[in-house]
Amino acid sequence: MTDPTVDHLRARLDETPSAIARTHAAATTFVAEHARALEAPRRWALSGIGASEGVARAAAAWIQREGAARAEFVPFSKWLCQPSSTLGFDGVVVFSQGMSPNARIATARAPKSSTRILVTASPSHPAALDARGEGWLLCTHEPADEGALLVRLTGPSCALTVARALADAVAAAQRSNGGGSLSAERAFERGVEVGRSIASAMDVSALEHVRAMLCAAGDDETHGGLAWVWMESTLCAPVALWDLLGFAHGPYQSLFDQRATLIALEQASHGALVDRVASMLDRDRHTLVRVRADELGPFTVFSHLGSLWALAIALLERRPRDLHTWPGKGRDKPLYDITE
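-> structure tokens emitted (340 positions)
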């Protein structure tokens, strides 16, 4: 008998590329309808928590790199602890798939004079309806319901697609998706294929000991959500995300005497750097899993995300976790239930 958690995640993995494609179409319509509002702000705040934190950080990085505006990730605790009038944002995007109580901190406190966008899969949630009544623009992504697991697979992937569309709009230049062959959903599918191939060729038990993910060239700014994926799906923590060169400045030494698996989220141009990491490791204690994406530009993160999910599901098939009744369930309310 297969594990119901694994069955659920497998089904979601298969459905995600189509959901990404539909979300991309909806997001493209949204940014076209609100082009003037998106072009106005000169300083954007992007906020999210949990898996949505990685999405918000990616959106901030993309807007900062490619747009004519400043952008930064703003944790919800900053909205809670500092008056919004002192922050100076005239554009705010909140990512919250299920309308977390923490998200309502930002929807209540963001400046009413700013362009305010709520990206959610729960547009009928009372908090989302309240936000819309207060002038927030609602950008909806799939899926409407992802079940009651601790971790969500499809929603953060779709929210990342919205982040990409918003960055394109702020940059005032829509991407061509590589002449029609390159897209977020196809990059995700390629990544799943890569991850499954890697899992079939390795001792999957080594994935029990993932301690860090390594990347280069600023990918740590767009890949933050991948560490959250691993922690929530496998219940292994902490999992750090480090720049490849930064690995030599403390992390390598602290992990050297431990059993540890590192996942290198690499692009073709990073291969020589990852080779250097491999040469530093002890084969008896360390495992390096190289997850390579072809040069996919802003879609690289979708490929790496697909690969990571394929690896996580392979581990869950070998070592099941109960993601319906997880450790500490219900005991996080002192922080989770903070709203204002």
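Strands lie at 43-47, 70-73, 91-95, 115-120, 137-140, 210-215, 240-243, 260-267, 286-293.
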